[in-house]
Amino acid sequence: MSQVVSNAAVAGSLADILVELGGISIDRIHRSPSPGSATLNDLLREIEKGQLCELVDGTLVEKAMGWQESLIALALGSILRSFVNGNNLGLVTGPDGFVRILGSLVRGPDVAFVSWDRLPNRRMPETSVPECVPDLAVEILSLGNTLSEMSRKRREYFHAGVRLVWMVDPRERSVAVYTSITDYVILADTMKLSGGEVLPGLEIDLAQLFAELDRRPNP
Q1: Integer Cα distance of 53 and 47 in angstroms
Q2: Would you state the pLDDT for residue 50?
Q3: For 157, what's the count of Cα atoms within 13 Å in the CB-facing half-sphere?
Q4: How many Å is the Cα radius of gyration of the chain?
Q5: What is the structure's pLDDT at 166?
Q6: pTM of this prediction?
Q7: CA distance 46 to 60
């Protein structure tokens, strides 16, 4: 009989894996293939089925989503796309714009900007999950996200080479602007969001952005 060997530094149970992933809900974890054994091909099969998953430490993790998040992501993406296309700076993607960063790690920012110089051959990628790192990654916080999960994402983004991260909170109507893992400011909805050194000249009125959540039918 072979001996089962364990190590305190390696996740040995599903509970351990959930902790490593930031204490997320077990409902977001795909059980097949078993957590820790998933590959890029497994992820591609799920994407073909219409599943929005990320590949983290060999585990398929469903993205946390919701109506408010979708509205803000679409509104913000439209603003970014207009600015980026108007200046021919690169490409803007949505929540199914998955990218492979840091080896086998695959993330899907809710909105992202990738400059031409960061795209393979400075062209539109032909693969479903290209290996490239966005200049700007935007995460729209959902009720299913945890603080530890988002902290981990920020660390991964900056380690991979992302230059700017926006964490948008629809419920608090604020944006945490990170220029590094530890350097950030929090903007209220009375303020303007700048593109900084990544998108110089871009300025977004947060009151107008979050007003998307207040839309009502005509009386």
Answers
A1: 7
A2: 87
A3: 30
A4: 18
A5: 98
A6: 0.91
A7: 9
Rounded Cα–Cα distance for residues 167 and 174 (Å) = 8
Q: Report long-range pairs for 131-135 (Cβ below 8 Å, ≥24 apart).
A: 131/99, 131/100, 131/101, 132/99, 132/100, 133/99, 133/101, 133/160, 133/161, 133/162, 134/93, 134/99, 134/109, 134/162, 135/90, 135/162, 135/163, 135/164, 135/198, 135/199
Which residue is listed with tokens 């893992």? 181
Query: Cα(199)–Cα(111) distance, rounded to whole angstroms?
Result: 14
Report the C-alpha gap between 56 and 27 in whole angstroms. Answer: 15
Q: What is the DSSP string of 142-186?
A: -TT--HHHHHHHHHHHHHHT--EEEEEETTTTEEEEESSSS-EEE
**Block mean pLDDT (10 aa), the chain, length 219:** 54 81 93 92 91 94 92 97 98 94 93 96 90 96 95 97 98 97 96 97 97 92
Find out whether 111 and 73 touch, Cβ atoms under 8 Å.
yes
Please name the residue that has the structure tokens 């983290």: 56
Q: Can you list the domains of the chain with their CATH numbers?
A: 14-62 (no CATH), 67-214 (3.90.1570.10)
